[in-house]
Structures are given as C-alpha cells and as structure tokens.
Amino acid sequence: MTLVWGLPLGLALGVLVGGPLLAHLIRRTPQLRRAFGAMLLLNRLPQELRRRRHVEDRGLLSLRMLMIAAFVLAVARPELQWPGAVPEFGGTGAVVVVIDDSMSMDLRESAKGTLLARARDEAVAIVRNLPPGTLVGAVRVGGTAERLTPELVADPDVVVARIEAVTQTLSGTDLSGAIRHARRMLAGAGGEVLVFTDEAGFGVMESALPEIALLTSQGGALVPRPVHAVEPGNVAVMGAVYGSGPEGGTVTVQVANFSSTKKEVPSTLSLPDGTEITAFIEVEAGAHAEKRFTVPRVGQGGIGSVQIEDGQLAADNMGSFHLPTMGASRVLVVDGDPGLTPIASEVYYLERALAPWGRTASLTGGVLPDITSPSGVNILDPDVHRVAFLANVADPTPWANKLVDFVNQGGNLVISLGDNVSVDRTNGVLASLLPVQLRRPRAIAGPGEAGVPTQIPDVDLAIFAPFARGGLAGFQRIRWQQLYTVDPYEDSDSVRTLLRLENGLPLMIERTVGLGRVILFTGTFDADWGNLPIQAVFMPMIQSMVRELGVPTEEANTRLTGVVGQAISVPVSGSMAEVRVEGPSGSLGATTDGGTVLFTPMEPGAHRVMGASGPAISEIAVNVDTTESDVRRHTSLSQTAAEVDPDRFMKRVKLGPWALWLALMIACIQAAYALWKQRPEEARRVG
Amino acid sequence: MSSTPWDAALLARIAHLHLQARNVVEGWRQGGHRSLRTTSAIEFVDHQEYAPGDPIRHVDWKVAARTDRLVIRRHAAEREVPVTLAVDFSGDLQTRGGEDGSGSKLSTATVLAASLAVFLRRHGDPVGLEVLGGRGVKHRTIPAGSRTLPSILRSLAEVEPGGVAGLSDAFHAMGNRLPRKSVLILISDLMEEPSEWGPQVAALVRRGIDLRVIHLHDPAEWALRLSEPSRLYSPEGGDELPLDPVAARPAMAAVVEEYVQEVRGYLGRQRGQHFLIAHDAPLDGVLRGVLGGRA
C-alpha cells in the first residue's frame, strides 16, 4: 500500500503556511496588558514559568491544528494505492470470453454447484448484456486451449451457445494458450479479454505473463473475472508408486491436503488381480502425507490404482500406478561353468553378493536370484526378471534371440567372461547386444606377480555412486592376472566404459540396446583371473549394479505413464493395422504415425495399447495433472497482470475530498466551540 | 477616597490607643508616654528575654527561678516621642491586582498615614513626614514637630504616585537625619529587593530609632488572581512579562512565602517591627499593633 501525493508542492506550501500559523497559535503573546505591582515577586519565579507561552485552550488549538493539517492534505491531494483491483469491463467494442474448464473448476460448493457452472453463468450474462454491435469471441482453457468460436462474431447468441456447451475437463490450465488465442482473435485492434478462472494452481497464472504482456502491448486489456469457492479445499492423490527397485514390496501413496483443516480420508488400494486394501490416510492442513501399503508377495503385474474419498473435487481422488509381477525372482543368473566345488563357480560368489541373507530372508527384501544352467534360459521373462547374468556361458546360440528380445523390451544383461566362453559364437549371435566385439583372453601378469590393479571408478556413474561415501580405495586392491581383450572402440551415445584397469584395459563396458542395457564384464566373477570376489567392494558393487539396472526404465515400452489431456506417444513394433487404445471407459480415438500410436487420454486410469490379439502392447497409467489439485489461490491473475500494466490494477482511494470535508467539518466545530467558550467570558466581563 | 485624607471612623475606633514607644526614650517634652527609665513606682509592662548588655538589676529572679529563663522586667515611663511617617508613593502603589475594581494600596497607605498623623497630634506627639517616590509634592520631608499636621495633610493630598521609593537610599538618609530615639513608621509595599535595603536598616537602629513597618500588599496580586494570560508590567519601569497565571500560581505562593520571611529576617535582626496587612483589610487592628509596638 502506497500513498501518492497528487500535488506534492501543495504539501510543502501547506507546511510553509501552516507551520508558522501553528507556531503562532501555540506561542502567541497574550493580548491583555496590565500593570502589576508585585513584579519583584514575579521576577523571582522560575525561568521556565516566566518564559512560558500560554496555550489558551488546548482543545481549540488541537482542533485548529487538525483543521490546518486537513486543509494541507486536501491541497496536496493524497491518494492511497494498493494492488489488487479488478478492472471493470469497459465495453470497448471487442470482447473475448475465456472460460477456464480445467479440472480445478470442477470444485463443488454445496449450494452453488461447480465453479465452472458459475463461470458459465456469469460469462453468459455478460455476453447477453453487451451493447449491440459488440464483436464477441470465446476460448476455453482446459488441457490445450482452443477457440470456441473461430473468430469474433457479432451475434452474441452464437457465443452464448458455445459457452453453455463447455463441459468440464480433467486437464490442466493452458491459460497462456487461451490468451494467445484471444489476442489473435482481437488481431491487434484492441479490446478486452475477460478471463473467468478460479486462479488455482501454483504458478499457473504466472505462466501466462508473457502472453499478457503481448496482449497489453497490442492494445488489448485483460479483465480478470475470478470465480472462487468461499472456502476452497481438496484432498488429492498426488502419486502412487510400487517400491523403488527389484526388492520392492510396498506401494507408496502420496496424498495432499489443499485445505485449511486437517483431514482423514478413507482410501482403497486396488491391485490388478482385484485385491483391495483399505486404510485411512491422515493429512495435515496444507501438507502432504505418505501411506505405504504392503502388497502380497505374489501377485499379477499390471496397473493398480488408489482411490480416496473427497467430496469437493472428485477428479483427482484416484491415482494409478504400475505394478510388476510379484513373487518371482527379479534376477536370473545363468551359470555357464558350474565348478567342481561351490567356490570354484562364479555363481557361488554372485549368489552371495546378491542375497547375502540367504534365500529365505530375500523373500522379505533384497534380491532373490534364480540360478539356472544355460539350458534353463527359457524361463527368462521380462515381466519377472529385470536383470540377467550370463556367467562364463560357452555358447549362447540356442537362446540368443530371447536375450535380444529381453533387452529390447527393457531387460538388462550382464555378461561376464571366463575360460568357458566361445569368442566366435558369442561375437556372432550376441553381436547386437555386445558393446564391443571380444578378441581373446590375455594374461596381463606373470605367475607370482600381484596383477594389474583396477582404476578408481567415477562416482558420478550411478553404479559407483554408493562409493562416494567411502571405499573407493578398495578398487585398487582388485588385481587381475588375466582379462579378455576387445576390439578397439570409442565411447559414444550408446557405448561407454564404466571401469578400466590401471593399464587402460576396459573392465566394464555398457551399451544401451532398445529399452534395456547390456554390461560386458571382461573379467570373471570368480577368483580364477583376479581377486575381485574376495574384495570388500565386490558385494556393494554387484548390489548397486542390480539396483541400478533393476529400476524399471521410465521409457519402457510396456510401462508408460501419462497425464489427462496431454498427448501420449507409444512406439509399436510390428503391424499397425489393428492397433487400438482402450481406456477405462472404452476405446479412444488414436492416430498412428510410422511406428507410433498417438492418443490423448481424457480420464485417469489404466489405458492399454492393444494389438489384433494377445496381451497389451503397452500399458499406460494415466493420472490427472496434480497442478490442478491445488485449488488454493496463490497468485491472482490481477497480480500477474499488474506486473505488466500496474496502473490498471491499482485500487485507489482519493483522500483529498475526504480531507477537505474533514477540514470544513472541523472548521465548523472549532468555530462553534470558540463561540461557546467566548460567550460566558463576555457575559462575565459585562456583568 | 473621602475629601479628608484621614478616616474619621477609623480615628474614632483607635482613639483610646496611646502610642507607646518600645524603646525607652528620653523625651525633651513631657508627653503621654511612659519612660522605662523611671523604674521605681512605675507601672510594670511586660517581660523581655535577657540579652547580653541588659542591666542585671532588671532581671526578674522569681521568674528565672520558676522557669529557668532569664527575663528582664520592663516598666513604662511617659515620655514625648517624635514620630516620622515615611510613606511610599512609588508607581507600584497605584496598581490594582484584582479584576473587581477594588481599592489600591495607594489609597490605603494615604489613609493610614493621615490617620496616624491626626491621631498622634491629638495625643500631643510631634509628627513628621517623609514622602518616598511620588510626584507633585512640594515638601517631601517635613520634620517632626507639633505644628506640622496641616503640612502633612496637604502633602498627602497633593502627592501623586510615580517613580520608585528607593528604600535603600531613604533608610540611609533618614538614619542620618531623624532624631535619635525617635519612632519611624514606614508605610510601603516593600517591592524593592530586601537584600538592597535591608542592610541600611542598621543605620536607623544605630541611632536608636524605633522602626515600625506597615507592609501593604495586594492579596489579588500575591495570589495571581488573574483570569487569563496577560502581559504584566510595572509602572515603575522594566520589561513586560507574559504570564500564564494558572501555571504560575503554585510557584507564586512559595515565592511570596520566601519573600515575607526574607523581609522579616532583615527587620527582625535590627529589632524593626513588621506589620503585614492586605490593602483591603480593616486597619484598626494594624494600627493597634503599630501604636502598641507589638507586631
């Protein structure tokens, strides 16, 4: 709030005039002069009493001072200003009505219906009352903004019909796009853009600032018409996610309370197999809360959902999430060279590193590896396994295609070598997976020598990130006597070296293939070629590797997520002829572009891209835009627009007339008071 | 003021009084006063506290035995005592402190002086006059005598207030001029610094002059009974003083009290008698005190 002086000079002049006047009133010399015979005594009075000027009537003096001050104020024409005014619609001859039909406008007030209904009614009333000849257009905001009328029209009934036909969307607020449409409809000829919005969502109004600036610069004027609930409140599902890696086991649900009171909402977690788990979630006012649901150890994979009960805004009461098939191992270890003794096998060390607590304990957490021989690779299932280890496998030819499919669909493969590996066959059938072609085993240290140490890895790489807290020196204690050499290569977008020896030979090379990744380990996981498995860094490195590779890839073709109102693109391999998209309410319109299916979901829930037959090509967990869930007002549109055109959005109170009236009123009061005081005095003197 | 400067009614009220000199005087004419010198067969008057230098034979041993105090018996002796009336006609005497138009200190001083002069002459005492301040008077000094009353009354009638009294110089001059063992009655408002005139009183006492001061004051002035702020000035000159009477009133009372004590101190040290009287108060009481020599 600021105080602006219309005529600052008047204030100065007022002070110049009023100051001496007040000083005179305060310090004026008494008019009455009289002889006094005891001056000797008066001269003995204290100095301050003898110098003191008398204030004849403090009340009267105060009134007169106030009167002068009020006059000075009136002359200076002060004006009190503060931002927040909503400019009135001024009838410029061209009007664009912008209707916010985003999800937050579905907020219900018991007696008044939804905010959208109110906004529609107000907009229709304004359009109907426009002066004849006014050009009108309309734009809606939800999802991607679009024009309700292609251009400005002179017939208000057309616009009214379009506005009344606006239905609630569950999408976000594209205010910037809506103002852009409105600006283009006005075509730089000036006019007013009336925006009917609830101003909900953090940062939503600010996002439209550039367009508002453009509109203003082209002679247009933004006129906010806020539509608010008396007490906006909403409890929303902000997200649900199953675990954070292969050891999972819980679904974490995030709930937010966008109201001013603490809420306790009933919630139901629904799993793909129909299992339902109910619980109450308590969430403080204006806060988020997390609720963890423990899911069965064995269960069907797919898309689950969580549903809460909240009456104010129902659209965001549901959140959907992906759930992998549970109850099976997530890691498959293919033992290509079972040793004569347990500790002579790579599998022995891998199993200890992956499940140090044993198989039983792994059921409650950690990783449960499946161990198989090369003939059992057929059990590899992308829905079950996230990571497969090929440990010293001689000939992958029989199931090479399965491995390729596994990786292309998002699986991850770790290939370790050894004496058993056939270089030619491996290079041949796994060429599409190997980061680099193998050459041959090479002794890099003589008998009795300590071996070549390993370089300290880069902790910026996710696999080695846990070592940032310590233990990096342990890598230098890993020494190698023998290693597979590889063809020369260079790091690229798809191939990178994760770890080397001190002599520069690569030890770990990663390649991205399809939606998965392949790591080639040029040594062995047993103690034949080096001392890796008996070093302290072995177990944490393997655990970290599995955790990093085991996280479901966001881009995984089969497990996509989407937002209501936003287009989703799903790559599809194979025939596109009979591809269709199924949503919670049935089939959706979809387009194909090359190997991609494009569609825009209009409701939350599980969406599936289906082929002619068989299982879903892809499953998409669609949720609403949670930006819309925050129905509280953060920055008003007026505040935002005021940044561009502050003058129009200032509330003003002119204090000058009030000051003048006050001065006149005080003048009368002081005059009456002075008369009232004077009369008894005169009467007394006359008497 | 009436056509005669004295107050006939007042004179009637005090007719029975005799001027009695406190000090023992040696009159050069036999008058109506009694001399303390003739101790035998002389009427006892009162006791007085013994002071070093007093005759031991006058000590009243009976009283001393009863009260453990040394006192001296005093006796009256009838003697004729010259009396000088010194009247202050300075400018301050004419002011009226009150806002009700009541009389001034000047009129009271004139009445007092005339009444005393007439009374004393009726009782055969020689009377003189000293005019302090004032204007338009032909004879400012009239020595005490038996035929001075007409001159005194004429001077009292023709004098106009003005100027300053100049008490310090007046005391000094009268100390040199007045007869020894005479009586000096000063009628004044004493509105001059006591520290200036006070020490000069000693000049009178050294000559054995009995000083009796009638201190006139205006109660309205001393109480600052003014209804509104005023610029106050003295007719005797000096700066104006703007004053808020309401604000100054409490302090004024203390100043008055301090001033009166100061005056009494200077006079008391020289055995002068001080009679403080408001100008509008009845005069018989103060005359009784002045003539009886008891403050």
What does this protein structure show overall?
Mean pLDDT of chain A is 84; it is low at 361-365. Chain A is built from 15 helices and 37 strands. In chain A, strand 9, helix 8 and strand 10 form a beta-alpha-beta unit. With 687 residues, chain A is of the alpha+beta class. The relative contact order of chain A is 0.12. In chain B, a hairpin with an 8-residue loop joins strand 4 (127-132) and strand 5 (141-145). The model of chain B is unreliable at 13-41 (pLDDT under 50). Chain B has two domains: 8-20 and 80-292, von Willebrand factor, type A domain (Rossmann fold, 3-Layer(aba) Sandwich), CATH 3.40.50; 44-75, no CATH class. With 295 residues, chain B is an alpha/beta fold. The chains are: A alpha+beta (687), B alpha/beta (295). Chains A and B meet through strand 2 and helix 2 of A and strand 8, strand 9 and helix 9 of B.
